[in-house]
Amino acid sequence: MPQRPYIVGNWKMHGTRAMLSEARAIDRAAQRHMKVEVAIAPPYTLIHPVHREAKQIAVGAQDCHHEDGGAHTGDISAAMIADAGGKFVILGHSERRQNHGESDELVRRKAEAALKAGLRVILCCGESEEIREAGKATEFVTGQLKASLPEFDEGDEAIFEKLTVAYEPIWAIGTGKTATTEDIAEMHGEIRKLLVSLYGEEQGREIRILYGGSVKPENAADILSTPEVGGALVGGASLTADSFMGIALAAAESEEA
Ligand code: 13P
User: Left if phi > 0, otherwise alpha if psi is -120 to 50, otherwise beta: which for 12?
Assistant: First the structure.
């Protein structure tokens, strides 16, 4: 069954309760675009308030700890996110990998903890500008992803529906530069090949692959109609309902095309 495009807003460290009106507006608009799956990951402090009000969109987190609980000052577990109404978590974002020294191994353990707590996982990967210029982007991204993917019991089929991959080239994040649709198609094709080689034809194709990095209403239609792009992970343009839903609308139209 073809899946609906998945449009996810990563609010990063933006948003106080004043932003709840934007979340409400996103939720209302999402009710008019049921062909698209819309979700937002606000800061932890807004997960529960958004969850309480949202009728259509899912709310999630931008990170979680890899353990269930314990003496980890300042950290939040996957079970706490689920308790607050979170349905998913973004893991391995390049800002976490760079600013908090997160290794592939740590990201993998976080993904395993999140799945155990019943959350869906959006697992991020992406190369720096230096790696791309050195012609090593594919090798790097597939290696990073392979090492970050969660391990799970062989019979656990439900996992594939819970797992999403996001390809976010670091040099395209917040810069206004986007990868060309040729580059996106090539990288998403390589990621798909990896997923199929790991999980088999059927399950490997069930996992959606999102693109992230300066996605805006103006470029969304081209990006979302690129082969193997199952949606978008959106930073800056997800902070207002107008621009975020402009992207969701482009996704809805690409479905109809
Ligand atoms: P921008 O859309 O602001 O480039 O951010 C992308 C991103 O990092 C989403 O996770």
Answer: left
Catalytic residue among 37, 102, 168, 190: 168
Segments making up each domain of the chain, as ranges: 6-94+102-256
pLDDT digits (tens, 9 = 90+) for 23-66: 999 999 999 999 999 999 999 999 999 999 999 999 999 999 99
Q: Is 0.85 surpassed by the pTM of this model?
A: yes
Rg (CA), the chain: 17
* Alpha-helix residue ranges (DSSP H) falling in the chain: 20-30, 47-53, 78-83, 94-99, 104-116, 129-133, 137-148, 159-162, 181-199, 201-206, 217-224, 241-256
Tokens of 226: 């690129």
Ligand 1 atom 7, closest CA: 235
> Up-side HSE of residue 243: CA atoms within 13 Å toward CB?
13
Q: Which of 93, 102, 127, 190 is catalytic?
A: 93
Active site residue 168: yes
Contacts of 71 (CB under 8 A, 6+ apart): none
CA–centroid distance, 79 to ligand 1, in Å, is 26
- What is the whole-number distance in angstroms between the Cα of residue 154 and the centre of ligand 1? 33
Q: Which residues contact residue 17 at a Cβ distance below 8 angstroms, ignoring those fewer than 6 apart?
A: 46, 49
- pLDDT per residue as tens digits for the range 124-148: 999 999 999 999 999 999 999 999 9
Q: Is the domain 6-94+102-256 a CATH 3.20.20.70 member?
A: yes
Span from the CA of 58 to the centroid of ligand 1 (angstroms): 18
Report whether 3 contacts 35 (CB < 8 A). no
- And the tokens for 125? 């990967």
